[in-house]
Amino acid sequence: MVGGGRGAFIGAVHRMAVELDGEAQVVAGALSSHPEIARESAAAWGLERAYASYEEMAAAEAGAENGIDFVIIATPNDLHYPVAKAFLEAGIHVVCDKPLALTVAEGEGLARLAEGGSTLFALTHPYIGYPAVLQARGMVCGGELGEIRRVMVEYTQDWLMEPLETSGNKQAAWRTDPARAGLGGCVGDIGTHAANLLEFVTDLRIEALCADLSSFVAGRRLDDDASILLRLQGGAKGTLVCSQIACGEENRLAIRVYGSRAGLEWQQQEPNTLVHKPAGMPWVLLRTGQSYLSESARAAARLPGGHPEGYLEAFANLYRAFIADVRRVSLGEPPVRDYPGVQDGLRGLHFVAQAVASSRAGSVWLTV
């Protein structure tokens, strides 16, 4: 792992997710840009090999007989591009936190590098790993909802209601800094997860958007709230709302899909339940772990019905799919790539860039 050391949130999440199924183990790390913190963090995790920099780690692991199979990038956004580039050039597979890079140009460079060689690349949009989300995608793509007409997705939090970036909060400081986070604040941090969920469940691309981005906290340089109208492939319409100043909300990611025959509703805070709303009929609650679900939804569940499965398990499903591809490639077999990849990352970068451009131009419609 690169990044994710002491004081970071996502590093521990990655480690728990990648090790959940016993298929992989984190053995090496450059866990901080500060050498002392990197060493202390590696010692606290019991890692076999600790490095002072990602450059040193890429070179050493590429040349080692027992070098790592893949690297996890869990740094702030501004380091995603140089770290991923270093490991791809070293011939090491990459799992990277979103966003793919800081800019569209950087993302296009990584795409050329990843797709021009034999290395695998995964981008962590973990919310599509929930069994109920996989069930929803199967129902939509299988025509059970009929023609898709309306999609509504939201991701709301309240953790940035106050100017935490001015009081020493490490996470808030870099996420609200354009030099480290990129063009978008809230729309880049959680809006991209909402957009990815929408496109995954419906299998429809966002073709155009009209965005209204706001910074409600005085002095904040990036948006902390966004309302976006969407035009989807095939003529469907959508709305995407994301906010990090929504008082009282914890981590509310939710999606509603409406077709000509039925609707679907799912929210992460009740992740085991998918609500099916057939026209003129009672609502049906579909539950994770049950035999009536699709094969993909059943395969994504680890426990019998009634046992809560959540964020870590969904995250681990991405790793399980990626690790299976690492094994296939090592045996000379073609990868399946049933996880978000470099092109999904590029779509996310274009989505953020156009949302920011639309808002700055007075909330005009722009193509994605």
Structural features, described:
- The chain has helices at about 10-20, 35-45, 55-65, 80-90, 105-115, 130-140, 170-175, 180, 185-200, 295-300, 310-330, 340-360, and strands at about 1-5, 30, 50, 70-75, 95, 120-125, 150-155, 205-215, 225-230, 235-245, 250-260, 260-265, 275-280, 285, 365.
- The strands form three sheets. A nine-stranded mixed sheet has the order 14-13-12-11-7-10-9-8-15. A four-stranded parallel sheet has the order 1-4-5-6, sandwiched between helices. A two-stranded parallel sheet has the order 2-3.
- Helix 4 (about 80-90) packs parallel to helix 5 (about 105-115) and helix 9 crosses helix 12.
- The longest helix is centred in the last third of the chain and has 20 residues, at about 310-330.
- The protein is an alpha/beta fold and about 375 residues long.
- It is globular and about 65 Å long.
- The protein has twelve helices and 15 strands.
In total, how many domains does the architecture comprise?
2
**Fraction of residues in helix:** 25-40%
Question: How many individual β-strands?
Answer: 15
Order of helices and strands: EHEHEHEHEHEHEHHHEEEEEEEHHHE
Distance between the termini: 32 Å
What is the chains' assembly state?
Answer: single chain
Major sheet: arrangement of strands:
14-13-12-11-7-10-9-8-15
- Silhouette: globular
